[in-house]
From TrEMBL:
Family matches, as InterPro entries: Cyt_c_biogenesis_Cmc1-like
Keyword Mitochondrion among UniProt keywords: yes
Native source species: Pogonophryne albipinna
Keywords: Disulfide bond, Mitochondrion
A Pfam short name: Cmc1
High-level lineage: Eukaryota, Metazoa, Chordata, Craniata, Vertebrata
Chief location of this protein within or outside the cell: mitochondrion
One GO term describing the cellular component: mitochondrion
Protein name: COX assembly mitochondrial protein
Assigned protein family: Belongs to the CMC family.
Length: 107
């Protein structure tokens, strides 16, 4: 089977405008994990008053996430990772999320 190169892959509109930004959001949340946890903790402790009490944590979280969303290098990194996953899917027919699941040990 012929190997597919990353520069030969054509990305559809939905991939560049929806799927790659979704990957960026997930990765940014992993990078900004401390701010995400601080915001979540504040929300749990504040209940209905979280809108008023957690403004500081929300602003810090937004700032951290926005830095990554607007970074062209971060977009390119996520795009290349998405392309690798797409090539892997095209060659194996198995989606990345299905490949990462462990096989049952008792067969």
């Amino acid at each position: 089977m012929e190997k597919i190169k990353t520069d030969e892959i054509h990305l559809r509109h939905v991939e560049t405008d929806v799927l790659i930004p979704k990957m960026m959001r997930e990765k940014a949340k992993e990078i900004c994990v401390e701010k995400v946890e601080a915001f979540n903790h504040c929300c749990k402790d504040s209940g209905f008053l979280m809108v008023l009490k957690c403004r500081e944590q929300n602003a810090a979280l937004k700032e951290c996430l926005t830095i990554h969303y607007k970074d062209p290098a971060f977009f390119e990194q996520c795009k290349q990772e998405y392309i690798k996953e797409k090539i892997e899917f095209l060659t194996t027919g198995v989606a990345t999320k299905n490949r990462k699941q462990k096989l049952p040990t008792s067969m």
